From TrEMBL:
<keyword id="KW-0813">Transport</keyword>
<keyword id="KW-0132">Cell division</keyword>
<dbReference type="InterPro" id="IPR009038">
    <property type="entry name" value="GOLD_dom"/>
</dbReference>
<dbReference type="InterPro" id="IPR011074">
    <property type="entry name" value="CRAL/TRIO_N_dom"/>
</dbReference>
<feature type="region of interest" description="Disordered">
    <location>
        <begin position="94"/>
        <end position="149"/>
    </location>
</feature>
<protein>
    <submittedName>
        <fullName>Patellin-4</fullName>
    </submittedName>
</protein>
<dbReference type="Pfam" id="PF03765">
    <property type="entry name" value="CRAL_TRIO_N"/>
</dbReference>
<keyword id="KW-0131">Cell cycle</keyword>
<keyword id="KW-0472">Membrane</keyword>
<keyword id="KW-0963">Cytoplasm</keyword>
<dbReference type="GO" id="GO:0005737">
    <property type="term" value="C:cytoplasm"/>
</dbReference>
<feature type="domain" description="GOLD">
    <location>
        <begin position="366"/>
        <end position="498"/>
    </location>
</feature>
<dbReference type="InterPro" id="IPR036865">
    <property type="entry name" value="CRAL-TRIO_dom_sf"/>
</dbReference>
<dbReference type="GO" id="GO:0008289">
    <property type="term" value="F:lipid binding"/>
</dbReference>
<dbReference type="InterPro" id="IPR056794">
    <property type="entry name" value="PATL1-6_C_GOLD"/>
</dbReference>
<dbReference type="GO" id="GO:0016020">
    <property type="term" value="C:membrane"/>
</dbReference>
<comment type="similarity">
    <text>Belongs to the patellin family.</text>
</comment>
């Protein structure tokens, strides 16, 4: 018997969902891809990098909800409480109808038995003026079954949970509302639909044993296809999905060659999603969703049958079982075929899901990512400053500076180096590049010679960020020169620091 494993609404699905034109959707509205932020700058003075665009998750505080949303949440909690305590959450609808009369009869028999026992006790009290110690002990024994029922309820409390959050509303766990609101939002606050979605998700997780997936070895060779790396401006963990690795026929066959391999691959992607969820703070006010970056450069096209099958399985799983766990879905290096598939797959996605999509052409990758992720957190292969095991810069210990380079103008960046024997290190990137760039060390002593650190050259659009360093043996300054020979403004981002002594 084959168990069909599905994945998250924003991982494999992003391969195939597209817009008809090379535009992007931001905050639910379609806008042109070109960024207009630079045109709003009145001067070319350097300034600390500001957010080009911001987005925040919808509030999970009960007080911030609309009245209809509050009522829907309360109704869902009541419905869930009844299902958990009644141990009916995983029952099929047919069995519920059959077992309900039986349950009612049992309850009725229990009530009649308790009533008979009460009458018997009353008769005893009428014939006896006081009870002896034996009768008192007997009454205490009769109370023990109630304690057993309470213990059973506590056991159920611990058993029914999702992503480590207990779901029994009466327990008052802080994150329960956050989880339930995700399902409500995914179903437009329709209580019955949200409850059924939650029930099916819990049933699916139980059937395919998703809670154990974190401890499974599902193929280290696939780690090049996706990884968690850094956080965005709002604190969301960022997941990078690299679909170009499947251009390798060997890896493609390993992931999609057979039905068993496709299921294994989807389970591995599910594992990555679960790892990402572990980084979230599923509490009101906490960061409770991820940012997905989907790199389609060199990705196999729609002619690949196995990929289409895996994608369809992923679309189903992601939308059904991981609602509202992705804040934004950013597609970069989007090829032509991506747009052609929109008419086929877009109807299968909810408007809420599509409203989270942002699409960037190859020339706009860095510019688009900067709207959501600080340049210090963007990997160097996407035009940012982040490098693995970076010993020169650690995290965001130095904020980047933003400089607008007007058309036909030249700007210089000076890094003071008055103390001898220190090592200066710097990062620099230009959006769109196509500039003339050089680096020099100019001694303070006018009698000394200027040292060429980087010979002047024209840097094209395919160049990555600059990283260089210089150890000064005399007082002076580093001068970085950027000349914009084009007819368009350029945006320069840079940072530098001085490390005492050499590395």
């Amino acid at each position: 018997m084959t168990v069909e494993v599905k994945v998250e609404e924003t991982q494999m699905a992003e391969v195939v969902v597209a817009l008809k034109e090379p535009k992007k959707i931001v905050e639910g509205k379609v806008v042109e891809e070109d960024v207009k932020a630079m045109e709003l700058v009145d001067d070319s003075k350097p300034k600390t990098v500001q957010k080009s665009s911001s987005y925040k998750e919808e509030s999970n505080f009960f007080s911030d909800l609309k009245e209809l949303e509050k009522k829907a949440l309360s109704d869902l909690k009541s419905k869930l409480e009844e299902a958990i305590l009644g141990n009916t959450l995983f029952e099929k609808d047919e069995s519920k109808k059959k077992e309900k009369p039986l349950a009612e009869n049992v309850e009725k028999e229990k009530e009649e038995k308790e009533a008979a026992e009460t009458d018997k006790t009353d008769q005893k009290e009428e014939t006896q003026h006081k009870e002896d110690e034996k009768e008192i002990a007997g009454e205490e024994e009769e109370k023990k079954p109630d304690v057993g029922v309470e213990a059973k309820s506590n056991e159920i409390d611990k058993e029914i949970s999702l992503w480590g959050i207990p779901l029994l509303p009466s327990r008052g766990t802080e994150g329960t509302d956050v989880i339930l609101l995700k399902f409500l939002r995914a179903r437009e606050f329709k209580v019955n639909d949200a409850f059924e979605m939650l029930r099916k998700t819990l049933k699916w997780r139980k059937e395919v044993n998703i809670d154990s997936v974190l401890d499974e070895d599902l193929g280290a060779d696939l780690t090049s296809a996706a990884n968690m790396n850094g956080i965005d401006r709002e604190g969301h963990p960022v997941c990078y999905n690299i679909f170009g690795v499947f251009d390798s026929e060997a890896l493609y066959q390993k992931a999609f060659g057979t039905e068993v391999k496709r299921i294994q691959f989807l389970r591995w992607r599910c594992q990555l999603m679960e790892k990402g969820i572990q980084k979230l703070d599923l509490k009101p006010g906490g960061v409770s969703s991820l940012l997905q970056i989907n790199d389609l450069k060199n990705s196999p096209g729609p002619s690949k049958k196995e990929l289409r099958i895996a994608t369809k399985q992923a679309v189903d799983m992601l939308q059904d079982n991981y609602p509202e766990l992705v804040a934004k879905n950013i597609f970069i290096n989007v090829p032509f075929w991506y747009y052609a598939l929109n008419a086929l797959l877009s109807p299968f996605l909810t408007q809420r899901t599509k409203s989270k999509f942002v699409v960037a052409r190859p020339a706009k990758v860095t510019e688009t990512l900067l709207k959501y992720i600080p340049v210090e957190e963007i990997p160097v292969n996407y035009g940012g400053f982040k490098r693995e095991n970076d010993i020169e810069f650690s995290g965001q210990d130095v904020d980047a500076t933003d400089l607008i380079l007007k058309a036909g103008s030249t700007e210089t960046i000076e890094i003071s180096a008055l103390e001898v024997g220190n090592t200066l290190v710097w990062n620099l990137t230009v959006l769109g590049w196509e500039v003339y760039y050089k680096e020099e060390f100019v001694p303070s002593d006018e009698g000394s010679y200027t040292i060429i650190v980087q010979k002047g050259k024209k840097i094209g659009s395919q160049e990555g960020p600059v990283r260089n360093s210089f150890r000064n043996n005399e007082p002076g300054k580093i001068i970085l020169t950027i000349e914009n020979t084009s007819s368009k403004k350029k945006r320069v981002l840079y940072r530098y620091k001085t490390n005492k002594g050499s590395f």
